[in-house]
Amino acid sequence: MSVSIKSANEIELMREAGRLLELVHEELAKNIRPGISTWELDQLGEKKIRSFGCIPNFLNYNGYPASFCISVNDEVVHSIPNKHKILQEGDIVSIDAGLIYKGMHSDAARTYGVGKISPQAQKLIDVTRQSFFEGIKYAKAGNHLHDISNAIDDYVSQFGFGIVEELVGHGIGHALHEDPQIPNFRQRRKGIRLMPGMTLAVEPMINLGRPDVEWLDDDWTVVTEDGSLSAHYENTILITDGEPEILTLNR
Ligand code: MF3
Ligand code: CO
């Protein structure tokens, strides 16, 4: 495993890749409402990415046929946008997005409620988002990678939710997926030592019920085995000597 340290120039490009991606998320968030299809959201988002002169990095990734992953309710991640998948009041929807700016990648995911959602669903969304922030409290030079994993697990476990173990976060930069893998659950080993200039996509995926997931016949869509709701929150971050810089949240 080799974890790359980005140069000042690469970091500057990744900042811009991140800033633009957040604008894409803002555009999609404005359009989430009962009645819209996940395909329409994908089209809107792809237009926005291309308006920046950027490329959607998910499109054609291992044959993936769309620009976004838009996962509803018990879908955990990697659900393919579809004209017939219409958002309904009370649904929760996870939008995972990424783009390439001048050769550098960004990757970020958010989960939203559609109209009015149940208090349980809102709690799941809030805990998933907060678990990212609990994890990255440890994302600084000198700490170890699995300090992040352990902090996410400690936080989420208090609520009795299921942490997905079969999918993990990752390094990111010249490629969408680089070393290292970043688990969201407690690890026996410490993992690599974090160094300034590492860029990581930290992305907890949390189920209301059991942690187990399965793949649908399309070979992409990941769903919870017990049919419970699932939420996802992800940002691309930069490791520094101090606080991590979150590249996909606009400052
Ligand atoms: N953000 C997703 C991940 O890190 C990327 C999905 S690639 C796709 O797993 F091809 F599935 F869209
Ligand atoms: Co990712």
Automatic annotation (TrEMBL):
<dbReference type="InterPro" id="IPR001714">
    <property type="entry name" value="Pept_M24_MAP"/>
</dbReference>
<keyword id="KW-0031">Aminopeptidase</keyword>
<keyword id="KW-0645">Protease</keyword>
<feature type="binding site">
    <location>
        <position position="177"/>
    </location>
    <ligand>
        <name>substrate</name>
    </ligand>
</feature>
<feature type="domain" description="Peptidase M24">
    <location>
        <begin position="12"/>
        <end position="241"/>
    </location>
</feature>
<feature type="binding site">
    <location>
        <position position="234"/>
    </location>
    <ligand>
        <name>a divalent metal cation 2</name>
    </ligand>
</feature>
<feature type="binding site">
    <location>
        <position position="203"/>
    </location>
    <ligand>
        <name>a divalent metal cation 2</name>
    </ligand>
</feature>
<feature type="binding site">
    <location>
        <position position="78"/>
    </location>
    <ligand>
        <name>substrate</name>
    </ligand>
</feature>
<dbReference type="Pfam" id="PF00557">
    <property type="entry name" value="Peptidase_M24"/>
</dbReference>
<dbReference type="GO" id="GO:0046872">
    <property type="term" value="F:metal ion binding"/>
</dbReference>
<comment type="function">
    <text>Removes the N-terminal methionine from nascent proteins. The N-terminal methionine is often cleaved when the second residue in the primary sequence is small and uncharged (Met-Ala-, Cys, Gly, Pro, Ser, Thr, or Val). Requires deformylation of the N(alpha)-formylated initiator methionine before it can be hydrolyzed.</text>
</comment>
<feature type="binding site">
    <location>
        <position position="234"/>
    </location>
    <ligand>
        <name>a divalent metal cation 1</name>
    </ligand>
</feature>
<dbReference type="GO" id="GO:0005829">
    <property type="term" value="C:cytosol"/>
</dbReference>
<dbReference type="InterPro" id="IPR002467">
    <property type="entry name" value="Pept_M24A_MAP1"/>
</dbReference>
<dbReference type="GO" id="GO:0006508">
    <property type="term" value="P:proteolysis"/>
</dbReference>
<feature type="binding site">
    <location>
        <position position="107"/>
    </location>
    <ligand>
        <name>a divalent metal cation 2</name>
    </ligand>
</feature>
<dbReference type="GO" id="GO:0004239">
    <property type="term" value="F:initiator methionyl aminopeptidase activity"/>
</dbReference>
<protein>
    <recommendedName>
        <fullName>Methionine aminopeptidase</fullName>
        <ecNumber>3.4.11.18</ecNumber>
    </recommendedName>
</protein>
<comment type="subunit">
    <text>Monomer.</text>
</comment>
<feature type="binding site">
    <location>
        <position position="170"/>
    </location>
    <ligand>
        <name>a divalent metal cation 2</name>
    </ligand>
</feature>
<comment type="similarity">
    <text>Belongs to the peptidase M24A family. Methionine aminopeptidase type 1 subfamily.</text>
</comment>
<dbReference type="GO" id="GO:0070006">
    <property type="term" value="F:metalloaminopeptidase activity"/>
</dbReference>
<keyword id="KW-0479">Metal-binding</keyword>
<feature type="binding site">
    <location>
        <position position="107"/>
    </location>
    <ligand>
        <name>a divalent metal cation 1</name>
    </ligand>
</feature>
<dbReference type="InterPro" id="IPR036005">
    <property type="entry name" value="Creatinase/aminopeptidase-like"/>
</dbReference>
<dbReference type="InterPro" id="IPR000994">
    <property type="entry name" value="Pept_M24"/>
</dbReference>
<feature type="binding site">
    <location>
        <position position="96"/>
    </location>
    <ligand>
        <name>a divalent metal cation 1</name>
    </ligand>
</feature>
<keyword id="KW-0378">Hydrolase</keyword>
